[in-house]
Each structure stands twice: as structure tokens, then as C-alpha cells.
């Protein structure tokens, strides 16, 4: 497959208002892509910055809640009718949910599945005709380290990210026939607001919420801008799989060396890192990403 060409083509990007998605939006614009930016949060500031720096690019914003099936379908219809041909779709929007499985409601679990898995599935399915309209398109699904390993306290998040990884890997095989590449991304701890905006299961005891969120946040150290640059480089090179930061690469290696035993080891190391960085906030059930 030839390297992906960004300039002059349209990219659809979810979760563009902050974190990795915001940096992806800037990186795509720098590479000359027209943009359709989607987020539940306002996108005005990101779009204004791009329009100012790149006045020749078309930048469209869509504010929508991707946890809502009807909203996802409406967004997809709108994008498809305006853009019968697309170069790139990046399913990046995601949310985290802390707490044990018994400490969350089924509705809370489902919301994570809906944002992290169902929305990418629906958007990809609806936009496939535009992505395959001309050869050379590309699809990116942002899974997680927790799409590779499954640790205590990550039931909904891991379930959603494993599901996305599975879909993404199948699509890589299937879409090759149409000349469309697929990259599955597994970030480790990236410095974004995912921890501060993370939800907690409604039955997590109140005194555990702040320490767990702080422990989670302490593990997010890799710059979002660098993560975005690596993702766009992987798109250029049509890479199947991208692990970002040693916080993803080392656990992945451990999981392959010790398919069962790695979970305890990683939980111990995570707890040790947490207690070193913030002695008062160490949690027995680290929520880490
Ligand atoms: N930061 C990390 O350490 C890390 C690690 C592994 C995977 N990831 C994944 O990377 C992706 C980007 O996360 P981030 O770290 O940049 O976090 P972030 O919170 O900074 O960005 C996520 C974006 O998704 C948007 N979003 C959330 N719910 C939405 C909804 N219902 N509808 C539409 N948009 C919604 C948010 O408004 C936000 O702009 C996510 O899929 C996340 O799971 C992040």
C-alpha cells in the first residue's frame, strides 16, 4: 500500500476538543488535511486556532454526544452527504470509568461501551462508502494499553478497548481489498485530561474517588503532542499497530512473556510507582492507563 497522503484530503476526527485528539487536529492541519472535527465538548477554540494558522483549509465542527446512538447516526449522515469521499477516519473519542465491576451500574458500563466501542463501530460502518470511494483511504482506532491487558478496576474500559481492537484488526484484513489501511493505536499513559474527566462507578465509596483519580493522573506522563505525531506517522506508513510510550510497550511485553502472571506484576509495579510519586494517594486498586 502506498504511503497515506494527507494534503488536500478530508479527515474525520472524533474527540478533537482536547488531549490526543486536539493535537491530532493540529497535526492533520499542518499536513494539509481538511477537517471534520467531532466532540461532545465545544470545538470553537480548536477550530479557530486551525483556521488562523491554515486559512486555506476547510474546518467543520460537529458538537455531538457519541454515547447516543441517534446522534452518532445523525452525525454520520451529515458527514456522508457533505463528503462522499473521505481520506481518513480517526475514532479517538473515549472515556474512562473507575471502580470495580460491582461498584458500577450496568448503565454506567454501557455508556463506556457506547462511546469507546459502539460509536467507532457505527461511524466506521456508516462512513465506509466514503472511505472506500477512492483507493488510499485510512482508518485509525484509538484503543489503549487496556485493549492489550486487563487489570483490576478496568472492566468497562478494558471491555470497550478489547472490543475496538478486535474490530479494528478484522477491518485491517477486510479493507485491504479496498486499498484502505487500518491502524490500531494502544497508548500508554499520555498526559491529557482523561483522568480528570474520568467517571467513577456510582457505588465506589466517596473517600476512594479522589485518591483513585489522582493515582490514575500520576501515571499519565507522555506528551499528547508526541503521541499525536506518532499516530500520524503510523498512518503515513500504514502501520497495523502502534504502541505509544514505554508504559504501553513494557506491559505488552510482559503480557506476552507471562500471559497469566503479568496482571499481578503490573498491578504491583503500578502501585509502587504511585506510592513513589504521591505517597499519600497510593491505592490498592490503581486505575491506570
Ligand atoms: N491519555 C491516556 O493515557 C490514554 C491511554 C490509552 C488510551 N487513551 C485513549 O485515547 C483517546 C483520547 O483520550 P485523551 O487521553 O486525549 O482524553 P481527553 O479526555 O483529553 O479527550 C477525549 C475527548 O473525547 C471527547 N468525548 C468524551 N466523551 C464523548 C462523547 N460522548 N461524545 C463525543 N466526544 C466525547 C472529550 O470531550 C474529549 O475531547 C481515548 O479513546 C482514550 O481512551 C488515552
UniProtKB/TrEMBL annotation:
Matches recorded under PANTHER family: DEHYDROGENASE/REDUCTASE SDR FAMILY MEMBER 7B, DEHYDROGENASE_REDUCTASE SDR FAMILY MEMBER 7B
Domain Ketoreductase: 9-193
Signal peptide per UniProt: none
Gene3D superfamilies named in the record: NAD(P)-binding Rossmann-like Domain
Keyword line: Oxidoreductase
Similarity remark: Belongs to the short-chain dehydrogenases/reductases (SDR) family.
Name this polypeptide is given: SDR family NAD(P)-dependent oxidoreductase
